[in-house]
Design goal:
With 259 residues, the chain is of the alpha/beta class. It is built from 10 helices and 6 strands. The strands form 2 sheets. A 4-stranded mixed β-sheet has the order 2-1-3-6. Strands 4-5 form a two-stranded antiparallel sheet. Helix 4 (76-91) crosses helix 6 (136-151) and helix 8 crosses helix 10.
Amino acid sequence: PPDVNERGLKPRMKRLFINNLNRRWRKNPFVFTYRDFLDVHRGYWQKKIYRFILLELSRKQTEELDRKCHEKGITINSVLTTAFLKAYQDVCSPFPKSNLVIPYDLRRRSEDLKNTFCFLVNSVEISFSKLIKAEFWDAAAMLHDEIREKINDRSIYSIINDIQNLDGSILDTLGIIGSAACMPPDSPGFKRVGDFLADNKNVANVFHKRFKEALPGAVMTNLGKLDFPGNYGDLKLESIISVSYTHLRAHETVLDLVC
């Protein structure tokens, strides 16, 4: 398992920042009720319509892709990500930002986290401006090498400590704040939620604004098999539901790669 205990000045500064954020939040917290969640998602899907393009490879194509990737020493995810980036540039237009975020599974990389009730996903950020200009297989190899280098950097696992140190209620609020404006006017909590969203001094709104400004040009996901433990003490996990992505309205394209 990776050593997530950071040392030095940077982690101390980070802890001070998180403690200050928690203190400011607890002075003026805001909690979305269960009814608020239901109404936000109802309004979200009334307003949002998405189109999906399904491309399914034949067995022969899949075997050839797998053989080629092994031959080149590159993951299928790196190859498909490169293919999507180049195709989007050719068919649509250049991305508004030339940075790419690729999530990865933290749970699979640490035995200590197997029974933790959390999604446990972090991500690496990569600039793809050079990838677009390179030949296809060269670009895929460059992407693969950079992902491996960044994932092997232990500092990226520090998010585990960061999440544990943050007040849980602010994480709940940040999880839906990006879609809260979709709440229908006939909702019981419409005015209360609206007043909260208009409070530019609330630490959750400040944090969310900065996060939204830092959103990348593209997000690629391939988190693999969702192998969660079924039981957590008296709590039994019956199903996993993928709710609408909080910040999806800031992206034109989000690609889910299932390999």
